[in-house]
Write a structure and sequence with these properties.
Pfam families: Ig_2, Ig_3. GO terms for molecular function: transmembrane signaling receptor activity. Keywords: Disulfide bond, Signal. It is a single chain. By secondary structure, this protein is mainly beta. Among the domains are: 89 residues, Immunoglobulin-like; 80 residues, Immunoglobulin-like (Sandwich), CATH 2.60.40.10. A hairpin with a 2-residue loop joins strand 12 and strand 13. The radius of gyration is 28 Å and the shape is flat.
């Protein structure tokens, strides 16, 4: 699968990569524009490559409801008639009684992520050891652990075990934020018109956005951009934005009175030249 399309994505509900036998998952092809011709496909560990509704799953509009069994473990994705495809997701249905609940879809840097080690019996939340890339990272009596403000260094292969057994391993992907604020990196001059843009990395990029200055909401724009006419020193501050896909980092915008300074220098220079000329006459 090499022809990746940015206009299509596969969503997983609930968003996890491991499931107990007979649990259900909803897989949806979310396509920008015309979704006709897109199909949900899978490739299982047993080598079966097929579409939802043929040997497995129940189609419901653009979604597929799947009642899972161990032989359904594999890779799932959306594909168009022309061969374009969405992101792919690994789903694991172990024969054992312990799973690790971890996100199937990529998480964004800065998010808080909770991993749960679940036993199919009762109680489900036994004391658990959590591992990353084969090394023990934490033991939790509640059976769950939270990674605050995840970073790229948290990306890796996770598993857990408790008194009832061990879960399969699942990969957690961490991506950079998908929303940025386009604002001037250099100081702007008083009187200039300044446009700020809240951009999403996907499609469409210009979603409705809220703009904040120094932590307070100042404007909501359906176009995803806002213009400050004739900026003044009072517009200087810390800006950020958010839309339905997330929040941007904060950026400082500096406003200077550079034009006034230049005028002063020119006046002083002209005065200096006049004084020099007069001294020569004297």
């Amino acid at each position: 699968m090499s022809n990746l399309s940015l206009s299509a994505s596969l969503s997983v509900r609930p968003d996890r990569s491991q499931f107990f036998k007979y649990e259900s998952v909803s897989l949806s092809c979310e396509v920008q524009g015309n979704s006709a011709g897109w199909r949900l496909k899978r490739y299982t560990v047993s080598g079966d490559r097929s579409d939802c509704g043929r040997k497995w799953g129940k189609p419901q509009g653009s979604s597929c409801i799947v009642s899972l069994i161990p032989s359904y473990s594999g890779v799932y994705w959306c594909e168009s008639g022309s061969g374009e495809h969405s992101n792919a997701v690994n789903i694991t249905v172990p024969a054992g009684a312990v799973i690790l609940e971890s996100p199937a879809l990529p998480v964004t840097e800065g998010d808080n992520v909770t991993l749960r080690c679940r036993y199919q019996g009762t109680p489900s939340n036994l004391t658990a050891d959590f591992y990353k890339d084969g090394s023990l990272i934490r033991t939790q009596t509640t059976g769950e652990m939270t990674i605050p403000a995840v970073s790229k260094s948290d990306e890796g292969l996770y598993k857990c075990n408790n008194s009832e057994g061990e879960s399969p391993e699942s990969w957690m992907t961490v991506t950079a934020g998908a929303v940025i604020l386009e604002s001037p990196a250099l100081p702007v001059t008083e009187g200039d018109n300044v446009t700020l843009r809240c951009r999403y990395q996907g499609i469409p990029s210009n979603l409705t956005a809220d703009f904040y200055k120094d932590g307070s909401l100042i404007r909501t724009q359906t176009t995803g951009e806002m213009t400050i006419p004739a900026v003044s020193k009072s517009d200087e501050g810390l800006y950020k934005c958010n839309n339905s896909e997330g929040e941007s980092p904060e950026s400082w915008m500096t406003v200077t009175g550079e034009t006034f300074i230049i005028i002063c220098v020119l006046v002083i220079s002209a005065w200096s030249l006049e004084v020099i000329h007069m001294s020569k006459i004297i």
